[in-house]
User: Which sequence fits this backbone?
């Protein structure tokens, strides 16, 4: 029997509640629509490439409301921000949806007026770097100017409305002739890092320092959410090499030194752990991927598991693909075809997307 999407089935896999702050368990397994303007302002980076392609193909961006994101958002709503850093760690098997759950949470923080410090993939900071230069500030460190400049550009897009309000607490000297004075807008510092690529790594450090100093303060304070995808990439080995072919240690990278997860206050950390460069592909638990050093740095944290699709979530995704006319093979529209997709994907979101993707 061929399955069809009728108007009454829309309420099954779609919700009209597009504000992450108002979503609840009654919306579990349903897709909400992200306003087109938010893709530029909230997600200039961070969304998975295959999801971005899907958004272009479907001419809309929808995110499924899932338990991990709801749990994380619930924690953020109830948290006491007069106390030290809150850490929440998303973990799960490969393809279970950790990145999308993190992005859902980032969307919530952005709509609530938080300043969002989003690091889309920490692993990119420790591998395949196009340009690695000796630091002009610390002789024992290395800069990644191109990556730093690109990150600053996206940070500026995401938090543009904060950049004129936040004033620098100290003076920063770049060269004998160039400096950024105390009291100047943070945006001036960010602009300098974008335009002066050579100094961009040091500018990232200065920006993070200012945010740590000012987040949550009583005078003009703001809430700061730090969202790090693949946070386990900040510890362990890198694939980067020095001129003498010896490996670069993570602590020798300027950007990783700047990304201090130990002593930040008034910040909610929402990292996710993903497959590591040197860990078994089957590893997914925090202690397996973070290692001893990473686990100690993150501890204490609230673990938030990300599981495979439930029956309801799979059904919702299946109906969404039918609604978008994405399942073209006649057999895929039958009950037997649906069972075959369940068997082949094991309800893994990423595997299901690839099974149903274009050739």
Assistant:
């Amino acid at each position: 029997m061929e399955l069809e999407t009728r108007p009454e089935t829309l309420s099954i896999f779609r919700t009209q509640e597009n504000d992450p702050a108002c979503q609840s368990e009654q919306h579990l397994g349903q897709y909400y629509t992200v306003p087109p303007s938010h893709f530029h302002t909230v997600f200039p980076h961070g969304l998975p490439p295959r999801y971005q392609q899907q958004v272009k193909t479907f001419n809309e961006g929808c995110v499924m409301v899932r338990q991990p994101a709801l749990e994380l958002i619930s924690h953020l709503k109830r948290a006491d921000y007069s106390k030290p850093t809150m850490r929440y760690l998303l973990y799960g098997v490969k393809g279970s949806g950790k990145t999308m759950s993190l992005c859902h949470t980032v969307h919530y923080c952005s709509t609530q007026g938080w300043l969002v410090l989003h690091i889309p993939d920490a692993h990119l900071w420790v591998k395949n770097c196009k340009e690695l230069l000796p630091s002009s500030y610390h002789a024992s460190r290395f800069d990644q100017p191109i990556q730093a400049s690109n990150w600053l550009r996206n940070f500026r897009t995401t938090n543009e409305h904060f950049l004129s309000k936040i004033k620098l607490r100290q003076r920063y000297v770049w060269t004998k002739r160039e400096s950024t004075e105390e009291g100047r807008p943070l945006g001036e510092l960010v602009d300098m890092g974008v335009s002066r690529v050579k100094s961009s790594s040091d500018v990232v450090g200065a920006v993070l320092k200012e945010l740590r100093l000012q987040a949550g303060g009583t005078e003009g304070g703001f809430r700061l959410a730090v969202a790090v995808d693949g946070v386990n990439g900040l510890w362990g080995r890198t694939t980067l090499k020095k001129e003498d072919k010896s490996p670069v240690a993570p602590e020798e990278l300027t950007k990783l030194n700047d990304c201090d997860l130990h002593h930040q206050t008034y910040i909610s950390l929402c990292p996710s752990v993903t497959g590591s460069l040197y860990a078994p592909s089957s590893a997914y638990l925090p202690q397996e991927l973070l290692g001893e050093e990473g686990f100690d740095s993150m501890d204490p944290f609230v673990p938030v598991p990300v599981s495979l699709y439930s029956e309801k979530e799979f059904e919702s995704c299946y109906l969404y693909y039918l609604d978008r006319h994405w399942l073209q093979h006649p057999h895929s529209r039958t009950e037997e075809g649906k069972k075959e997709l369940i068997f082949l994907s094991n309800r893994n979101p990423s595997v299901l997307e690839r099974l149903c993707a274009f050739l």
In short: The chain has 14 helices and eleven strands.
